[in-house]
Inverse folding.
């Protein structure tokens, strides 16, 4: 265990408002601060930092906790790693004998392993006995200079089943570490380890702190799969990272270029477009969109010009719009992607192309109009229907008005006619949203689909009483003390749900400990999602005007009554089963 006094010092030296301000733009809201939640997309701030309690809570998605929980969630860290992160930030040294045992394999170990593997891949690339073909591929076919190859740390994984594995084991890395780090797999036939990446050009993926967190490997021919990427590990989550952001972050304040592939990004950086990044083998995710919004407010989408690229661009436009990032789209004629365009036409032509980039709506408008001959009435109707549907989904009324006028002009229709169709479609969308919202609210009221506390759906009243009790104990020292000292005659056995029981046990154990209750120590026992639920219990009680000892006693009575009823029903079921067994045996004896 990290000593309690060290944890207290870490929290004291990392002011929650200051830490969160480096991720979220906070504005004063009374005695607290509010901003757009970094954990889900929203247009109206629902994320609040509470100055008095030094906690945060999002009333939209339910994320909540203290500064440690925030870093766990924002940086994808476990509890000990989040403490180490904050300790480094505050210049605090955690004593070696006070470090918590790492759960599984730490992200630090993953980083050490990836650095060693990257050095191995690079050595193999420049070794004629192994990397001659790969170096020729990069230098001649892909036209990359030696400086660019070295800048991005490119390498080569030999066409050998165990060369990397043997090398890494000689360096002291274990079989388990290599498998968890996704550098090797285990054969189902003979149980032997084998190199995961073989005969591929290797692209190290580096985070904004300079750590090698993962790899992408590309074949040099037409074999499949073309790309092979590291799966999620303790040090890497592909949905939360972008290739080359470690370089682009210094050059993307005005605009960021979003590409699909590693080679597109490298080609752009090589000719001076150092604000380019790429998603990691998948379409853009909400987490990546929020990450982008931290570094820029304008994105140029430069995806492949095939059907898959167009679908990916549509998704990117929506997700980036959700986090209030301005989006433009690049149309490349005569080339399928930025890499090919630059090789064919040069960097200056690409720069000119950027100047002709389209807004998201212009891109969609041209895409729809290119599918139809609007001189034919049936095609004009189909084009109008598609465009009205696109406009109806736009949040801003001003934008809708501008787009309605544009579509009306393009199709030779009156603006009123287009507006009527847009309003009708939008009204239907709003009805669907409200119906879905109402259904979700009804399910939530009955605790249906509760992933954190699935037992709650079995008895809504008991679960509600549990949350009230725990909220009061979190808020008030005297109520917590009274429960622990036995004044309320409440025990863990009285709790109906497993989650409620676990929270109660954690609170009471900490309260009874030598140092007393400390909210931040809960983070060692619960996940970030569970910490959000615990914080919601506190916030629900904080918003109520009546939080007296009588309320606590009333909730305890409700909980005990529910538990007694459950016990009676269980006793009845046991008695019934026993009676049925007796009757069965009696019948068998007669026969």
């Amino acid at each position: 265990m990290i000593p309690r006094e060290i944890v207290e010092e870490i929290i004291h030296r990392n002011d929650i408002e200051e830490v969160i301000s480096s991720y979220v733009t906070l504005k004063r809201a009374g005695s607290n601060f509010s901003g757009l939640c970094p954990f889900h997309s929203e247009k109206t701030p629902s994320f609040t930092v509470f100055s008095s309690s030094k906690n945060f809570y999002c009333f939209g998605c339910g994320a909540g906790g203290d500064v440690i929980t925030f870093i766990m969630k924002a940086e994808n860290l476990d509890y000990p790693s989040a403490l180490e992160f904050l300790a480094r930030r505050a210049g605090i040294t955690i004593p070696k004998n006070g470090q918590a045992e790492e759960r599984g394999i730490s992200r630090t170990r993953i980083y050490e392993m990836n650095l060693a593997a990257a050095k191995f891949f690079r050595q193999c690339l420049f070794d004629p006995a192994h990397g001659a073909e790969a170096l020729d591929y990069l230098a001649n076919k892909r036209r990359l200079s030696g400086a660019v190859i070295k800048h991005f740390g490119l390498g080569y994984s030999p066409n050998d089943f165990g060369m990397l594995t043997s090398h890494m084991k000689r360096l002291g890395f274990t079989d388990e570490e290599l498998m968890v780090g996704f550098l090797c797999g285990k054969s189902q036939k003979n149980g032997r380890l084998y190199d995961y990446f073989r005969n591929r050009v290797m692209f190290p993926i580096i985070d904004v702190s300079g750590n090698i967190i993962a790899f992408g490997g590309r074949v040099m021919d037409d074999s499949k799969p073309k790309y092979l990427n590291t799966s999620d590990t303790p040090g890497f989550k592909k949905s939360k990272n972008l290739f080359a952001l470690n370089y682009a972050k210094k050059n993307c304040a005005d605009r960021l270029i979003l590409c699909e592939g590693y080679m597109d990004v490298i080609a752009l950086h090589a000719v001076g477009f150092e604000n380019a990044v790429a998603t990691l083998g998948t379409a853009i995710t909400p987490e990546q969109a929020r990450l982008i919004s931290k570094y820029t407010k304008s994105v140029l989408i430069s995806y492949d010009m095939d059907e898959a690229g167009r679908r990916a661009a549509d998704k990117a436009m929506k997700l980036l719009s959700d986090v209030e990032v301005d989006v433009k789209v690049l149309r490349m004629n005569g080339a399928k992607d930025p890499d090919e365009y630059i090789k064919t036409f040069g960097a200056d032509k690409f720069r000119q192309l950027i100047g002709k980039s389209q807004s998201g709506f212009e891109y969609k408008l041209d895409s729809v109009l290119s599918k139809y001959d609007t001189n034919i009435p049936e095609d004009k109707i189909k084009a109008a229907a598609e465009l009205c549907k696109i406009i109806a989904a736009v949040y801003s009324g001003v934008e809708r008005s501008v787009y309605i006028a544009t579509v009306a002009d393009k199709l030779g229709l009156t603006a009123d006619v287009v507006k009527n169709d847009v309003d009708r479609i939008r009204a239907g969308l709003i009805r669907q949203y409200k119906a879905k919202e109402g259904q979700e609210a009804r399910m939530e009221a009955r605790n249906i689909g509760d992933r954190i506390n699935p037992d709650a759906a079995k008895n809504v009243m008991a679960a509600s009483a549990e949350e009230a009790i725990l909220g009061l104990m979190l808020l008030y020292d005297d109520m917590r003390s009274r429960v622990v000292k036995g004044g309320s005659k409440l025990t863990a056995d009285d709790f109906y749900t497993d989650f409620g029981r676990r929270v109660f046990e954690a609170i009471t154990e900490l309260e009874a400990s030598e140092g007393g209750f400390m909210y931040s120590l809960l983070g060692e026992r619960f996940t970030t999602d569970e910490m959000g639920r615990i914080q919601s219990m506190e916030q629900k009680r904080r918003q109520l005007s009546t939080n007296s000892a009588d309320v606590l006693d009333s909730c305890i009575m409700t909980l005990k009554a529910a538990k007694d009823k459950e016990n009676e029903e269980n006793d009845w079921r046991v008695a019934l089963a026993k009676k049925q067994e007796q009757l069965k045996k009696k019948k068998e004896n007669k026969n």
